[in-house]
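Hey, quick one: can you model this chain's 3D structure?
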Amino acid sequence: MKREEKNQLTRSKILDHAKIEFAGHGYEAASLNTVCQNGNLSKGIIYHYFKSKDDLYLACLENCLQRLNAYMREGLSQEVSRDQMLNYYFDLRLKYFRAHETDARLFCNAAFFPPEHLKEKILMLRKDFDETNDAYILQFLKLSDLRQDLSIEDILQAFRRMQDYLNAGEHFGENTFADVERHEQNVRNVINIFMYGIIARR
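Sure thing. Here's the predicted structure for all 202 residues.
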């Protein structure tokens, strides 16, 4: 095996075990000792590839977001009627999360409880994923009859603030996948109310 391939395999092994640890315990409580024990790795080898716990955490999150974004971009490229677009989006996202529970919990931890000193870097890592979401919402809005006193930018800003509010108010119990599913359903319900209102039209 070539040295380059061996390095890639070792790095991937570290990421796989670190993602499980960060997903299960969050950044603060995650232990590099546990990553070493579960992966049969030495701390020296971890620090050879990642200079700090911060660096390892961000690499795990970047890997998660790249995989999620690639999946969502491909799925959202399919043609769906406007009335089905929102449900299709949430079904697609939940399908990915069900198939990749570690990614789901890592993603939600970073969204709800980001380490204070890493918030700016996390926002940068989320940039491509957030742009994918914004582009899809924009596509939905352009197909919709909007109130004339609201611009699309007004709506997108309100939409982002609402998402931030929902994330900030989230509480994970045991940090199980059931928490992820519950949150996804809550967001789906609120987005539907946000987009379609609560008063029946006559």
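One thing worth noting: The two ends are 70 Å apart (CA to CA).
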